[in-house]
Amino acid sequence: MDTRAHVSHPRSGMRCSSHHPSSLDESALYLATQHPATQHPSARRHVRVGVMAGIVATVVLLGGLFATMATTSAWAGTTPANGIAVQPLPAGALRQVPASLPSPAPTPSTWHFRVDREDGSSTGGLLNSGTYANFTDIWDTLQAGDKVTLLRDINFTGPISLTNQGAITLNTNGYTLNLTSSGDTLTVSENSQLTVTGTGAVNVSTTGTGAGVAAVRVRSRGVVTGIHNVTAPDGASGAWALHAEGAQSGVSINGNVTSGYSVHANTGATVTVAGSTSTYFGLDSNAGTIMAGAVTATVRGLYAVAGATVTAGQVTLGSQSQDGEAGQFYVSNSQVTAQAITVTGACDVLVHDKGSLTVTGAITGARIIDVAPKAVLKAGSISGVHELIVEDATVNVQGNVAFAQSGASSASNPAPCDHSATNPLLCAESSAKVSIGGSVSFPRAGDVTANTGASLAVGKDLSWQVGTLDVSDPGTTLSIKGVYRSTGTSSGSHSSVIYVDQGAVVTLGSASIVHGVMAASRAAQITVNANAAFTGSGTLLAQQGSVMVQGNVDLASCKADSESAPMVCAVAMNGHITVNGNFTARQSGLLWAFDPTPLFSASAIMNSQQIPQGGTITVSGHTSLPGTTWLGLGLNTAGVPMLKPATVKSVTQMASSTTKAGYLTYAQGGSSIWIRPFPVTVNTPRIPTAISVGQKVSVASGTWPVGTKLTYQWLRGTTPIGTNAASYTPVAADVGKVLSVKVSAVTPPHHVAVQPRVSNTVTVAKSPSPSAPVAPAVTAKTSTSVTLKANARHEFSKDGVTWQRSGTFTRLAPGTRYSFHQRVKETASTHASAKSTKRTVTTTPGTFSQGRVSLSGTAGVGKKLTAQVATTTRPSATRYRYQWYRSGKSGAVKTVVTTAKKSYYTLVKADVGKKITVKVTAIRTGYTSKTFTKTTARIS
After folding, report:
1. Which of the 8 DSSP states describes residue 791?
2. How confident is the model at residue 694, as a pLDDT?
3. What are the pLDDT digits (tens) for 194-228?
4. Backbone angle region of 861, left / alpha / beta, with phi > 0 → left and psi within -120 to 50 → alpha
5. How far is Cα 763 from Cα 744, in angstroms, rounded to an integer?
6. Which region, left, alpha or beta, applies to residue 911 given φ > 0 means left and ψ of -120 to 50 means alpha?
7. How many distinct helices (H) and strands (E) make up the chain?
8. pLDDT higher than threshold 80 for residue 474
9. Stretch 317-329: mean pLDDT, rounded?
10. Within 10 A of 167 (CB to CB), how many other CB atoms are there?
11. Which of 151, 152, 119, 112 is nearest to 134 (CA)?
């Protein structure tokens, strides 16, 4: 019986006959019709082949089928090995898996791959002349939901491309597929997606060369996931291993990427490599995302720009160059994270234009690390770097920074950081923020530069043999929390120079230097928080700046700037040198502090600059200058410095006839030494003109001779108060009293004695008012009182003018609205605060007591009944309401409201036989009304 039925295929809408096979031969016939050798390369459709039950039905069916094939010239018949001749389906024909067959259908042993269609049908391919028949074509015909399953290991040469075909699955089924092509080997684009599953592997490679070729290429929302390994030619002529481009496009590699020209992820694409990446130019992303494991690059290493995001493991950069381009690790306006970066040749790490590079481990061997405008670099440590340059950017290194033997002199350096290749360089420029948690070390010589508002902080030590710290410009800071150490041994020149200029600030934990100079110029500051020890020669120099050593200064010898110049231990040229410990020079030297006299050219000291005068040198501890000491504290009448060698053991003042005007004159061995005293002009100390209790007051002590020790005595009127300090905090006892301070001086040798000075006087006021509190809270109220929540620091008011300590207000009117305030009350040392916002309270209504009404008059028609308030209420009502009723029923006969205590009603005929009732209501503002009634007998 022929049970054929016409069925429409859901994809094509075409119809074909459906034959339901018998159970006896349905598998054999199905395999025959599905044999790949019988199919047109472009066929994607399915035919239902049915046979009648039993062997006879099968023979009849085959005979009919042969007849049909003979009349169909468009079908080219083939004869497979099983001997059953089955015509392949013409293009566009339909083939459908019989409903009675198992799914998936049995797989011939000759197949090497099988394709399972989304509609449940299957097809496959087998080896044919060394290639796989239909393998390329079958990929062109795949649509969303189709799955390709490997049945053997396959080595396929030729490109595979998926374009606008939806989601396709490739199941390795434990086998390996090796894809190779001379051009792009695997291309997925236009909303296509290839997902590799199974325990086997898919390896993709290309033999093509040139940057236009890619082993795996995705674009236009193409997605590839699960590829195992990707390879491409090595070297400058090699192809891309991976190239992904376009938003929502991506490649995911489970294994390694090797020998490719580079890995690309551009314009929103994502590339993920689970294994290692070994390429010529490394990773390249323009506005894309790359996630990779270990990366090895022969030349560049990484190029991330225009919003790219790159995450990598260990990155190793090679030493080759391409077209004169040294290797680079380049980040611009992108975010890059790596576990570590190791440079084996001349390669730079560049982070520019708001880029961000985070290295959790070490950056090792980089030639130049250049971090420029608004960029951020974070690293665990840095070693082997030749130059670290930071311009208007942020660098944070948790551990140590160890420099290489020499500099690099890159042309890309910002101008203030331009540097010869002689020494390695650490440079912070243009508001840069550099933080190094560990130590900074240079193997021999080095230079550190910070300027134009940069901040450079070293958490531990900075050390070198010979080096220069050059810090300048307002807002620029350099901080070394540990030891600044210079181990150079050459006495012919300074092994270490710390030069701070134009308002910059340098802070050192301590200093250990062989030969060196600390120089602060033009409002700059150098502070050493502990000791400064020079095991060779050294000099402290303050030219309009300040040098402060919180501990001791120990000089093995003082530095000579020329053969004719004296041994200079410390020079203050309109600057200040302060040593809060001992100042020791173990050989003879000069302490030179210039005073306010005409300019003096000290060519041996400061390169022939005109030196302004007025410097100070202050030593809090012991000063030791053994041997011949040079005194340079003044000029003679010709403007020549009075530098006389003298062994200072004891000096006596000469007779007044031999003194020089304006100088202190001393004699030693018959020779006179004239020494100009330091300035003795003392400005009167001053305190602020507005003083209140609790406000700390500091005195401006005025100008005193250098080295003067000051003591302080605060006065309340003429009564001494306070302690010996430059500040005092007034107390309540000072209110209304006059406050002043007397500053006394203990002058050092060679200074004119100065009398104590008393500051200006200021009357102490109470401290400012505290802030107004919130509105008071109500705890109770009656008809005549309101009680507010108590507060011992507050006072209360119901009109904002008159205040009382208690929060209870009495004698209030019942049912009346009041506004209450509170404020912090005035004390002996503090003014009262402003009043709070108001709290509005209405007292409860009052009630009447007593009250009685009576009636008088004749109970007859036309007669008048008068209601009389016989007993008034307490308190008295201000008015009354009279309401007359007939027989107690509702509905007024007459209503009268009056302030009088009586009212009347004239009886009418309708009242005859009825009782007349009057209700009198007492009314008063703030009180609850009270009603009294009186009823007559029946009216006759």
Report:
1. -
2. 86
3. 999 999 999 999 998 877 899 999 999 999 999 99
4. beta
5. 22
6. alpha
7. 4, 88
8. yes
9. 61
10. 18
11. 112
